[in-house]
Give the backbone structure.
Amino acid sequence: MRRFRHAPLNVALAVVALMWLVPTLGLFLTALRPQSESAGSGWWRIFFEPSQITLNNFLDIIGSDFFGRSIVNTFAITVPTTVAVVVIGALAAYALAWISFPGRDGLFIAVVGLLVVPLQMALVPVARLYGTLGIFGSILGVVLFHTAFGLPFAIFLLRNFFAGIPKELLEAARLDGGSESRIFVRVILPLGVPAIASLAIFQFLWVWNDLLVALVFARTSSAPITVAIQQQLRQFGGNLDIISAASFVSMVIPLVVFFAFQRYFAEGLLAGSVK
Amino acid sequence: MLAPALVFLGPALLILVALVVYPIVATVIFSFQDRTGDGFVGLANYREMLTNSRILTAIRNNVIWVLVVPPVVTGIGLVFAVLTERITFGRAFKTIVFMPMAISLVAGGVIWRVVYEDDPDKGLLNAGVRAVGAIFSAPGAYVGAGPSEGLREDEGALVLADPVPAGSTVEIGLLRLGASDIPEGARPASVTQPADGAISGAVFRDFTPGEEGTRGELDAGEIGLPGVAVELRDAAGEVVARSTTDERGRFDVPSLPPGSYQVGLAASNFRAPFSGIEWLGPALVTPAIIAAYTWIWAGFAMVVIAAGLAAIPREVLEAARVDGAKEWQTFRYITVPLLAPVIAVVLITLVIYVLKVFDIVLVIAPSNVQDDANVIALEMYQTAFGARNLGLGSAVAVLLFLLVVPFMAINIRRFRAEQG
């Protein structure tokens, strides 16, 4: 009875769900059509003429030096950044949660303050700094910048989680003569897994999807796929085959991560709704 | 305990100081320097910022973004969060709406650029507008036809220059029609004599091989134009009768009151087919990008609010219902107030993100309208790294920073309150 009563609502929300699905579907189907077809008609023609379906656009993307390399670069930027943010952030979060030292609370408040600083505030000086250090245009430079701007959120999220770990567990470990590093590895990290997982997924997607940082600090040989796509946009209509296929390729990993770890992603977002 | 603390904090502090704290200070200093960072110029960059029309457009657009996006996205998220609790596929719905949050704004932007294509044959949105529009105003069958002798144009319609009395016949010729413009089944035109008080006539292609005929008159062999909408107007210009031509181009309007009438062919005959709304033109580009951004972020608002909703004790809502509160009243007076803190967090988060909006504008706005769609973060990038004006670029960055500071303060206050 209850379901029946809500039939109009079910229909209405099904229409809304379609509105959210169709644009993405359109991109996918565009990527399956040759440029000669996309130049003259919309992706929905594919339903009337299924013979036009081709995987060539995807093969071209994966086979091209430029895009192939950009996919490799995306991994080379995202994976080290995620590891660095988690490790460095967890170390700092532990100190801020469980080691007492003068100025600790003030330091943590400062980190909370850094959460919302627009990264535009750092682009110009860091670009100059990188020039001096000779790492402008390198993947290392991109990784370091992302790490720096990922840390405040990492420290914020992990410190709050670590602070909730029962005091008795740590005190017992300390009484057993465990050093701080032993406690960190044996007690904090295992108990912190849920928060660390949320952070890692959030950070991974954040960096994978970044455009601005890479646009400023990467050069063609170190550019991730977002930059590679952006560079094709001036000829949007003429390059639609390449652009749509590359965009879809760029979405595959985030979507896999999303569907595999949706809960952790949502929790990371909930914790991060201050950033 | 300072030594172990430093070991743990060291790497983070080093990176944060070198790549966040020091640059913030340096950017502030740069904002008072010239375009190469070699000399101080006082407040010149800030003065430039408040007079430069590009930057003012960026600021104005950012104001629009901040005023529109947070309330709209939060409102949609609230509605979705509440409604998904009542449908059978709530989980699937949430996943679908939340999904765009996982992909890059670059990919999201490309998705919407395809949707917004001008050509209704290629862009989904314009195809939809055309399909709906065709119900109300179908394109004419004689697009491109021109008036022959004796006709003049009047707001898209073609009318006979001289009014005719009831009981007359009229001959209306059209030019500039090729063989392919003539509908199948059209036959040589003819005119029938009208009954008393009627007006009849023919609409025909005013063309004979060898140009032997007379312009504006029906010559032997000229072809009739079927399906033309004919309108008769009275002296006041009101349409008093309509008719449609048959396969010989004939029409007939019987039993008119005495008087003279202006005979014309309706504008609908010549209406050009829909060529697409220019979604990404200067006028609509910002609303179009905002719509795409809403599509991406609605899932965020929905998920956060749904989590807040789940935390409301069921008994509270049940109690309200037992007390006879209607669904809407429960929502308005119980659910929304209890959700207020969550809604505030969503709003603030959106304001902070929207102030920094960048990628999606760069991706969706075609290069020739990028100035019209400009926002502060984009302007900062273009000035500092496109035009290589370090001083002005830094000043724009400082503006962005100052706009975010109040929200930073709110965060810190809230955080302190939570810590008790």
About this structure: Chain A is about 75% helix and 0% strand. Chain A touches chain B through 98 residues (CB under 8 Å). Residues 98 and 163 of chain A are 7 Å apart (CA to CA). The first helix of chain A runs from residue 2 to 5.
